[in-house]
Amino acid sequence: MKFLTLFATLCLCVALSSAYYSPPCDGHCAYGETSVCYHDQPAVCLGHHRVVEQVRLRIQVTSVFIEDGISYKSIQVEIDNQSPGRITHIAIGTEYLQIKDTVSIRNVQQVENDFILPDGQVIETGLSYTFSCTIKDIHNPSVYIKNVIIV
């Protein structure tokens, strides 16, 4: 019986540790900083203002509507790559956004409270990539770059 209890506990620990999302290029930066990896180098923590010079986010509210008595906003987020390299990964923090449902998220993956590029998606230098979602109309939409890999 002790063996079964120990085995079940071990399986639960493995399951919980596997379910935790650990983004690539995580420099464990302080609040207000972004983890940036250049060309497979270790992560560097930069202030948001320095990252924004190279990778810009633009948010646009495309529509506002009410469904079942709840007010929603459809938003579009554009990632503009002005860095000298290709963006192969980006995690965009959402903090206060309350997503309507998973169906309303388009061209991006949601992992916990972050948006990340779909597998295999790359943003070349000088180009942009757009995704959209529908959020509850509680706050003005706000997103920020948590980490980015530029190669």
UniProtKB/TrEMBL annotation:
Supply the alphabetized keyword list: Signal
Highest rank taxon of the organism: Eukaryota
Q: Where is the signal peptide?
A: 1-19
This protein is called: Carbohydrate binding domain-containing protein
Q: What is the species of this protein?
A: Polysphondylium violaceum
